[in-house]
Structures are given as C-alpha cells and as structure tokens.
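Deliverable D2.4 — example input (structure tokens):
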C-alpha cells in the first residue's frame, strides 16, 4: 500500500470547570515514499465547535508534513 486515506473526529474538554467542549474533524491523505521509511502527509482540520476557554481562534487549518520511521 502506497497511499493512505484517514479521518479522525476529536471531542475535547480542555477544562472541566468551564461548560462546553470542542469538536474537530480531520481527514488526511498520505503517500509512502518508495525505498525510504518515510511518507508525506497532507491533512485538513476543521473545527465544528470551539470551547470558550480555547485561547486560539481558528476555524480550519491545512498541514503538509514529512514523517520518518526510525528502526
């Protein structure tokens, strides 16, 4: 398998003393680089619901990264 598709859903409660939680959805696409123990990954984050205590105010984010496996 060279190409991987993944998705995750997070529901976070940053502080139990403040009511509410945050919800995020993140699909991703990764490609394994042939001959190396590495892959390149493109990921998209979408915040569906944000907790009021969260200090950062962003609704979506794109990430591009390189991941290595050390043996």
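Example output (designed residues):
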């Amino acid at each position: 398998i060279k190409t991987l598709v993944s998705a995750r859903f997070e529901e976070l409660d940053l502080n139990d003393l403040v009511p509410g939680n945050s919800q995020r959805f993140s699909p991703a696409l990764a490609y394994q680089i042939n001959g190396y123990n590495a892959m390149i990954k493109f990921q998209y984050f979408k915040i569906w619901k944000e907790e009021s205590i969260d200090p950062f105010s962003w609704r979506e984010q794109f990430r591009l990264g390189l991941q290595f496996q050390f043996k």
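The longest strand covers residues 38-49.
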